[in-house]
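User: We ran a pulldown and think these components assemble together. Before we commit to crystallization trials, I'd like a predicted model of the whole complex to look at. Sequences follow.
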Amino acid sequence: MNIFRLAGDMTHLLSIIVLLLKIYATKSCSGVSRKTQELYAIVFLARYLDLFTDFISVYNSFMKVVFIASSLAIVWCMRVHPMVRRSYDKELDTFRHYFLIAACFLLALVLHEKFTFQEVFWAFSIYLEAVAILPQLVLLQRSGNVDNLTGQYVFFLGAYRGFYILNWIYRYLTEPRFTRWIACVSGVVQTALYADFFYYYFISWKNNSKLKLPA
Amino acid sequence: DGQPETHDEL
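Assistant: Here's a predicted model for the assembly, 225 residues in total across the polymer chains.
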């Protein structure tokens, strides 16, 4: 494992900790898209089907369990916890995420590394992760104001994707047979979705002002 | 040779 991948995994973990902290400390999930969180839970469940069949490292298995458990915990909070549930902005979170799930699954049926149950679900999870942030970005754009923790959550998620791209470049240069088109192309698409957000995040950071996204 | 390696990333 190289430093870029480790940095990517850590910023990913940090983003989830920030989100859990926000929900736990404020007992509120305002500004957070439940649809994005549900998509992430599906992403992790579909991707880590290999948890019991392919052992890579203790670190790898541990992180898989953490990602599955934390994503389910967030969805659980937003759906079941009485106070958190009340703060959910249903009217702002209108993205039709079922279409994303269907489209990604169809794409996975066509484009995969191998036509097996696990490989199709792995490809599906890669495609779905690439677009899972869309309901969150749309929600932020619709609400205009972004609170600090939600802004940091999206920032760390974007940083995680950026580090993964550096990781692939590093692996491509140092490993003789590193070619993973599905993951790399989807990863670049996913990172590009954050470009706009990053731009406004940087502006607000530079001016030391509250993050605001244009309508 | 088109054989998928194990997915070692998260």
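Residues 33 and 77 of chain A are 12 Å apart (CA to CA). That may be worth checking against your pulldown data before setting up trials.

User: Thanks, that helps.
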